[in-house]
Design brief:
The complex is a heterodimer of chains A (152) and B (139). Helices cover 67% and strands 0% of the residues of chain A. Chain A is mostly helical. Helices cover 84% and strands 0% of the residues of chain B. In chain B, helix 2 packs antiparallel against helix 4, helix 2 packs across helix 5 and helix 5 packs antiparallel against helix 6. Classes of the chains: A mainly alpha (152), B mainly alpha (139). At the A-B interface, helix 1, helix 3, helix 4 and helix 5 of A face helix 1, helix 2, helix 3, helix 4 and helix 5 of B.
Chain lengths: 152, 139
């Protein structure tokens, strides 16, 4: 059996994975940029950083990300979930463009197109690699090494 | 401490090898962590099904009793703190895209080798396209 389609609930979880990670990262970046330089000689200051507001918010978002990420990994391949995660960057860039009216350079538009294409490629394929018994593998008709080129 | 830190100027141009080492540390730790976590979640099974059978507590218990999960979390935590460390020394515009895009490719390789995932042409193409895309977008 090949999992081609995901339920709406599973798409919702992938959406959460996509949006919470870049939002959380942005909060962390904002928080860390405001900190003085941290050296390996004083690793304790990294722990103190955790309790500043932006970094705490970033961590809360990343905990939400992690919960949905774990759920997604329980029913989909890592190589399926990761490009979906990257799609979050596209969502954030489009939000910045149409909501915050930031300008997006040609280079960034190119990035948006490439990520969208990549995610589209993966989304067309199965979400989970099956490792069935040999006879079942035959009937599934998928070769693990070199699949036939699909023209779709 | 604050005085000595304040008098040390932030390096405008950091040694490129040091920068590469910082990024490599983030990429290596996060790839290891993600592969271990993915292996753990596959060994546990569909969390939605587990939750339907034994509730949220059952699902949380299933995750928290998996040793492989903690191995994954350890490396993800290592990746997180290496990222914090790198962000403090390098620009987000370098660390963000470099680590995010490289991790996609290393994960595709590691997913194929260690998780035996069916990384077909479609997924290779996606890994490369998204890798370049993330770099362009975040740079």
């Amino acid at each position: 059996m090949v999992h081609h389609s995901l339920s709406p609930r599973q798409y919702l979880i992938l959406g959460l994975v996509a949006i919470s990670a870049p939002l959380g990262d942005s909060c962390l970046a904002r928080g860390m940029a405001a900190m003085p330089a941290i050296t390996l000689a004083h690793p304790g200051s990294l722990i103190a950083a955790v309790f500043t507001p932006w970094i705490a918010l970033g961590i809360a978002l990343l905990i939400g990300f992690f919960a949905s990420y774990l759920t997604a990994l329980s029913w989909a391949d890592l190589t399926f979930v990761l490009p979906a995660t990257a799609f979050g960057y596209v969502i954030i860039a489009l939000l910045a463009r149409f909501w915050l009216h930031e300008s997006i350079s040609l280079e960034r538009w190119a990035g948006i197109v490439l990520i969208t294409l990549g995610v589209g490629f993966v989304a067309q394929g199965p979400s989970l690699t099956q490792h069935p018994a040999p006879e079942a593998e035959e009937s599934a008709g998928r070769e693990p090494e070199e699949p036939k080129v699909e023209t779709r | 401490m604050t005085i000595s830190l304040a008098t040390v100027p932030l390096p405008a141009t950091i040694n490129p090898w040091v920068a590469a080492a910082m990024i490599a540390a983030v990429v290596l730790a996060s790839t290891t962590g993600e592969v271990l976590t993915a292996a753990a979640m596959k060994s546990i099974g569909d969390l939605d099904v587990i939750r339907a059978h034994s509730g949220l507590k059952g699902a949380i218990r299933a995750v928290l009793t998996c040793p492989l999960f903690f191995a994954g979390v350890f490396f993800l935590a290592l990746a997180f703190f290496s990222l914090l460390f790198a962000l403090n020394h390098l620009n987000l515009s370098l660390v963000g895209p470099a680590s995010a895009s490289l991790t996609l490719v290393t994960n595709a390789v590691a997913g194929k080798i260690f998780l035996k995932e069916n990384v077909d042409r479609r997924r290779w193409a996606a890994a490369v396209l998204v890798c370049i895309g993330v770099y362009l977008l975040a740079h």
